[in-house]
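Per your request, structure below.
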């Protein structure tokens, strides 16, 4: 059962929760969307972000959903379906990566490289030039913090230059992302009825374009997904993303995540959503929100 939630956050609660340590890219996303003075709550994982918002320890949560190089963050798709939260917005953050270590280290002395699995993948071309042992951590900034706390020699972290400076690490190689235009799209989630500040200027597209995210369940029969797509096409709605995830309550069945370049409040979108009921087993709109600039 979904928990009942108060429509107003406590006055002393931080505005936004994110996964990781200060200096993480998720913190960059919070500041890009809400502003640099935003009060934040750093937690130890994506699930913890959703739990913090549900428990009213933060008004909103900011989580990554898609990277230009590594694709979607599938864990967060599942969490969006599990928790009773709404998507209120999105923000796109440039991802510039560096390799950093304790002062006095050099590239030749490094044996182990720590980072989040997404960051390791985004720096794959650089990492393949060496025979380092790659080790995953829960967060990019956390990888650097751990090296400092342990005083670990022979180790380096892949993280942002801002995080490296924060923890007193020396940058051994900068700009190591495989794609120079690397960036990650983050979602802003909140409980129904909770009021959030407007996005910062420049966080969203100047033309006010909207995106609607929904989840569809279809019968395991030939042509069921095609019938759903035909509904969108008939109403002139463009799909910017289509992702399948296992339906955890039915073995080998799947649900489909759809991003529409549309506002859920328009007559065309409302009509399409109404017609989907006849060809699906589940239709859940998770949010309709302004598109992030650069997304």
């Amino acid at each position: 059962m979904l928990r009942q939630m108060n429509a107003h956050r406590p006055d002393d609660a931080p505005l936004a929760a994110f996964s990781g340590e200060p200096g993480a890219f998720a913190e960059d996303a919070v500041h890009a969307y809400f502003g640099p003075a935003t009060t934040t709550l750093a937690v130890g994982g994506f699930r913890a972000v959703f739990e913090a918002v549900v428990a009213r320890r933060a008004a909103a949560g900011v989580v990554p959903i898609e990277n230009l190089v590594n694709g979607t963050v599938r864990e967060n798709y599942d969490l969006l379906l599990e928790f009773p939260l709404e998507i209120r917005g999105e923000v796109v953050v440039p991802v510039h990566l560096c390799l950093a270590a304790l002062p006095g280290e050099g590239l030749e002395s490094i044996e182990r490289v720590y980072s989040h699995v997404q960051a390791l993948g985004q720096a794959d071309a650089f990492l393949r030039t060496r025979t380092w042992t790659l080790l995953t951590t829960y967060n990019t900034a956390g990888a650097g913090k751990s090296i400092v706390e342990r005083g670990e020699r022979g180790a380096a972290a892949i993280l942002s230059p801002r995080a490296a400076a924060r923890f007193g690490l020396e940058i051994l190689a900068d700009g190591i992302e495989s794609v120079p235009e690397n960036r990650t799209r983050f979602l802003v989630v909140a409980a129904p009825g909770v009021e959030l500040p407007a996005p910062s200027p420049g966080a969203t597209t100047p033309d006010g374009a909207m995106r609607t995210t929904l989840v569809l369940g279809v019968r395991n029969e030939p042509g069921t997904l095609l019938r759903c797509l035909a509904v969108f096409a008939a109403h002139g709605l463009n799909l910017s993303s289509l992702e399948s995830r296992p339906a955890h309550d039915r073995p080998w069945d799947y649900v489909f995540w759809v991003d529409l370049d549309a506002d859920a409040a328009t007559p065309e979108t409302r009509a399409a959503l109404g017609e989907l009921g006849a060809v699906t087993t589940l239709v859940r709109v998770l949010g309709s929100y302004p598109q992030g600039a650069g997304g």
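The CA atoms of residues 215 and 257 lie 5 Å apart.

Regards,
D.
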